[in-house]
């Protein structure tokens, strides 16, 4: 590296560190933050997705410049804010990602084919679009000297544990290809960021629900699937006996924590569960709640359980409460009401079997093979 290029590299590093520290100081010392003082350029992979689009809204509202990419596999085009610069491109293409992230201060990596159940039967697709794209985004961000990389992981990292809720220091025991790929992505983030000196934070949001979630997808999003079915006067389909238990996170309760992970200076190199540990409900209870909101006569169809599904899964919010000020503001009942309102406004949709099943055998759910949704 020449003296001139080395000097430029050091200057760019100092500039981005200064922006992050300046923004953090404004958060600490002002109750009415002038967001423009800390205006940054932010790149969001998966910007058309449920989570990515809400992050984009928040960043734009705060006065930041937002750009992002998406393949539209798991999101909707109308999710993307008009003010954002959008590129319909797969983030597996390194040269393109290097070009798009040039000059960016922060990267939110939300892109992923987040299909935990399907990953057992389409491991090539899911791992390629989970682990490999993480490697690509990291290479691009490091090459461009990005100030901070916010990596969105998954509760699937924990797998089946002896106790719940899951805590950040637990040994990770992922038990399906999606969870394995997500955890491998975390290890790669930690490894490359520490080697090359890029700030990083790992977020573990779980079972996020709310408006903009893809509800015509037969492979994931249980609450959205049930709402779409019941609004069409169709019975929901439940895997197993329905006593599996989950907590559900309303999108607005997640976003403000993700904002702090990008700008707070005391979170670098750490992992944070993001979401509630209250209202731990069975899938049967979730179906009953939705049916009650819709005045729907519930008689669910039970089918065999999916291989490798974790029976009890929820995350502790203690660390997020103490370090990020997390607070569950939206009850599950309120969350479901808002989702119902969104689907009614957009209109029900026919389910789209848009992903290939690579392994079809007797273990593959008939809901997918026979397209029961």
Outline of the structure:
The strands form 4 sheets. The chain has a 7-stranded parallel beta sheet with strand order 3-2-1-4-5-6-11, sandwiched between helices. It contains 11 helices and 14 strands.
Q: What are the key terms here?
A:
single chain, 373 residues, alpha/beta, Rossmann fold, three-stranded mixed beta sheet, 11 helices, 14 strands, disordered N terminus
Give a structural overview:
With 373 residues, the chain is of the alpha/beta class. Helices cover 40% and strands 13% of the residues. It has 11 helices and 14 strands. Helix 2 (50-61) links the parallel strand 1 and strand 2 (65-69). The longest helix has 27 residues, at 3-29. Mean pLDDT is 91; it is low at 1-11, 14-19 and 21-37.
CATH third-tier fold name:
Rossmann fold
Terminus-to-terminus distance: 57 Å
Supply the CATH superfamily name.
Answer: NAD(P)-binding Rossmann-like Domain
- Spell the H/E element sequence: HEHEEHEHEHEEHEEEHEEHEEHHH
Largest sheet: 7 strands, parallel
Calculate the mean pLDDT score and round it: 91
CATH class: Alpha Beta
Helicity level:
25-40%
Strand line-up of the largest beta sheet:
3-2-1-4-5-6-11
Structural class: alpha/beta
Tally of individual helices: 11
Radius of gyration: 21 Å
Total number of strands: 14
Low-confidence segments, given as residue ranges, are 1-11, 14-19, 21-37
What's the CATH architecture?
Answer: 3-Layer(aba) Sandwich
Shape, per Cα inertia axes: globular
Number of domains: 1
Proportion of β residues?
5-15%
């Amino acid at each position: 590296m020449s003296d001139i290029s080395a000097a430029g590299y050091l200057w760019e590093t100092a500039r981005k560190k200064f922006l992050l520290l300046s923004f953090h100081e404004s958060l600490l010392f002002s109750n009415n933050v002038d967001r423009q003082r800390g205006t940054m350029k932010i790149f969001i992979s998966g910007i058309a997705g449920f989570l990515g689009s809400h992050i984009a809204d928040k960043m734009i509202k705060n006065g930041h410049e937002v750009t992002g990419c998406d393949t539209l596999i798991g999101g909707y085009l109308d999710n993307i804010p008009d003010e954002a610069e959008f590129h319909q491109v797969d983030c597996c293409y390194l040269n393109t990602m290097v070009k798009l992230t040039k000059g960016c201060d922060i990267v939110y990596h939300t892109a992923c084919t987040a299909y935990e159940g399907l990953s057992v039967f389409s491991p090539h697709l899911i791992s390629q679009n989970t682990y490999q794209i993480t490697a690509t985004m990291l290479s691009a961000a490091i090459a461009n000297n990005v100030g901070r990389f916010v990596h969105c992981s998954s509760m699937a990292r924990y797998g089946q544990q002896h106790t719940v809720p899951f805590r950040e220091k637990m040994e990770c025991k992922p038990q399906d290809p999606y969870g394995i790929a997500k955890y491998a992505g975390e290890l790669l983030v930690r490894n490359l960021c520490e080697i090359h000196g890029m700030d990083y934070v790992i977020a573990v949001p779980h079972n996020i629900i709310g408006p903009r979630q893809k509800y015509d997808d037969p492979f994931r999003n249980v609450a959205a699937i049930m709402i779409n079915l019941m609004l069409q006067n169709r019975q929901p389909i439940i895997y197993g006996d329905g006593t599996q238990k989950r907590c559900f996170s309303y999108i607005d309760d997640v976003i403000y924590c993700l904002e702090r992970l990008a700008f707070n200076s005391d979170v670098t190199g750490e992992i944070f569960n993001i979401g509630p540990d209250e209202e731990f409900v069975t899938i049967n209870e979730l179906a009953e709640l939705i049916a009650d909101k819709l005045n729907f006569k519930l008689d669910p169809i039970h089918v065999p359980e999916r291989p490798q599904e974790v029976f009890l899964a929820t995350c502790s919010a203690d660390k997020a409460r103490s370090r990020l000020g997390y607070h569950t503001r939206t009850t599950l009942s309120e969350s479901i009401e808002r989702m119902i309102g969104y689907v009614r406004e957009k209109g029900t949709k026919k389910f789209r079997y848009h992903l290939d099943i690579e392994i079809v055998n007797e273990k593959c759910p008939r809901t997918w093979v026979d397209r029961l949704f």
